[in-house]
Write a structure and sequence with these properties.
elongated; two-stranded antiparallel ribbon
Length: 172
């Protein structure tokens, strides 16, 4: 394995002209390899497995010094379209009205039920929370209880309000 088709200067120029940090990392590994450093030493210096360095060097040999960025389209695709996600965001932005005239924020389980009912798509609760974060919502939880709190006031408050609920609101 060698990189005879590229000079050291060409690799250095490619590193200097590259804006993607992942591609720069590949080029730096190629430069070290071109300078005679072993793959295992490069892997150790870059905190990567040596097989990853071999993959990068082979990619540079096949594809050249350009287009070393991560290719788009990797990972699990969303079951909901972009239009559906925008619609979901608009729906969740409005609080849920209860029978007694009050409103409350959306919980993860409410979003799960809404997506299942409206779109017929099942997600895990963890994935629902990821989607909510991606849509720009943040989780709201009550503050921890203080040891010095007034128990009577606390009980009065709990009797007049609902239990602690985790709900979501838009990041501001």
């Amino acid at each position: 394995m060698d990189l005879n088709e590229f000079t050291t200067e060409e690799i250095i120029d490619a590193i200097n002209n590259e804006s993607d940090t992942f591609a720069k990392q590949k080029l730096q590994a190629a430069l070290l390899f071109k300078q005679g450093i072993s793959v295992k030493e490069i892997a150790s210096k870059m905190s990567k497995h040596f097989s990853r360095i071999y993959i990068w060097i082979n990619q540079i040999k096949l594809e050249g010094l350009e287009n070393l960025q991560i290719k788009p389209g990797r990972g699990v695709k969303s079951k909901l379209s972009k239009k559906q996600l925008i619609e979901l965001k608009e729906t969740i932005s409005v609080p849920i009205k209860t029978d007694d005239g009050y409103t409350h924020g959306w919980q993860s389980k409410d979003v799960y039920q809404h997506i299942l009912k409206k779109y017929g798509v099942k997600y895990s609760i963890i994935r629902i929370r990821e989607i909510l974060r991606i849509l720009g919502f943040k989780k709201i939880v009550c503050r921890p209880r203080s040891k010095r709190r007034n128990e009577k006031l606390t009980q009065d408050f709990l009797e007049t309000t609902k239990k602690n609920i985790i709900c979501w609101e838009m990041n501001t």
